[in-house]
# Entry
Amino acid sequence: MYAVGLVLTLLVHLCVGEYVRLTWNVTYVQVNRDGYVDRLAIGVNNQLPIAPVYITQGDTLFLTVHNMLNVPTAIHAHGLVQTNMPYMDGSSMITQCGIPPNSSFTYEIRSNNQSGTFFLHSHHMGQLADGLRTPFIIREKYPEYDEDVLVALEDWYATDSRDKLVELLAPDTDAPLTPTFPFGLINGYNGNDTQTIQFTRGKKYRLRVMSMSTTEYWKFSIPGHKLSVVEADGVACEPQVVDGLDLAPAQRYSVVVTAHESDEYNFVYNCTLYADFVPKIAGLNPRVYTGLIEYRRGAPIKHVAVDDFVWADDVSMRARDKEPVFGVDRQIELAMRGFLTTDKRRLRRLGTLPYAEPHVPTIFTAMSMGALAMDSRVYGPQTQAYIIGYNQSVELVIKNVQGQPHSQHQHGGTFQIIERGPVDHSELEPPPDPRFSLDDVPKIPMRSYSGVPMRRDTIDVPPFSYVKVRLRMESGIWLHHCHLSPAHDVAGLSVTFVVAPDVMQKTLEIPQVLYEQCAMQGIKTAGNAAGNWGFDMTGLPPAPVEMPKAPASVQGAPAKALPKVPK
# Structure
């Protein structure tokens, strides 16, 4: 009998995993991360960078967050699907009110069957850009490599996000803003102080290359070595052999690199921080950082030129689990567009209006409005809510009609990547800068998945292109937004998917502490987006009004071509 009990205990342990407990005291810290500017930032336990978090597949992380700031905060496990617990998603004013100052909340983050490369970050206003972010790694129980190496990439701005938001959202800002140039951080420290990566002959290394950037993009390569991509955004894929990675903000890849059999030479790895949407200035954009791949101390460095360089390409990847392509129950078209208001605020929209937070967190509206929860109007005009039925397969057609790339993140699930292609020329937005023209927009080829689609939770949508994706989401409230923060998401590039609110009302039990923390902040937890009943939105600010657009013929004479579409 004892032996049977021991076996059952072991099986439960193998299936359920460990309970990992971690405490974060979220505090302000004074830092100088770029070597030039001292600024106030947000860290954990009075430290920045924040230590990466590691658990094993099947484990559950209990993250207790003590908010010692003077404003609310919330923590999102980026890429994790919170099955049956959407209230643990950590989206401020979507799935909770935020943790009030001098209060605490414990997030229960179940890995279930998920493994891969994720990150933890604030999902309240622009706190992500102020440092409240760190890698979250879920290791496989049986790894297929010798060593695990983290390469966490960030951009770092000298300006506090609150000051940046004032600049971005203030009236009379219709003129283009002066570009700023961030520094690059690698594993939390100045990119000029890159760490050496030790290689031993013949060993296999899993490099987890992840972008926790807020605005700019990263490229990564190790000339003289091939990178075998085995994961994108927490989804294992069939190996794709490439020379380099091009990462949009919030994207992650794992690559397996097999070390050479000879230690005659050392090599370099390259990390390049860049943006195609701000001026190129030597030393500022791009910023190139290099580190050492060391086989043997003192060995000469071999610099290798790569012909016919191959970048990782998600539309041609295949998910390792071979999940069949979904059918289409409903198609939703979203388009990134500028929205210049009549008081000259430069906002953005994905749907019909720029997103703005409701007065009642959307999850509480869904839980309290009964049958009306199935009507998108109760969520308010600027929550941009789409009601999705239980177990519905949705096809999103995400169009970028602008000359700037966007990195679109989906809470509550992963996209099946179906197709990429060009946006019809008639739909493109004329650029505000008269020096540029749409006449020379690059021709973007249409490409589709083959056999089995790849999945990921964050997808890059280059200028003047569209991406077609399909997904099924658990019942809950799930945000879809641009991850360029705070310039795009806070400025309005978000929509809300309200998935099966009728099912939520029957199956979901929101922890009492979340109601209490709303009450502490004077935020209602029942009613529509305004805290009223029915469709009465009294109390919500009026929706912004868009400035009438001038005819295309008078929007500026063409002078030179727009920037090329990035790979």
Summary: The CA atoms of residues 41 and 132 lie 8 Å apart. Helices lie at 2-16, 161-169, 362-368, 501-507, 512-520.
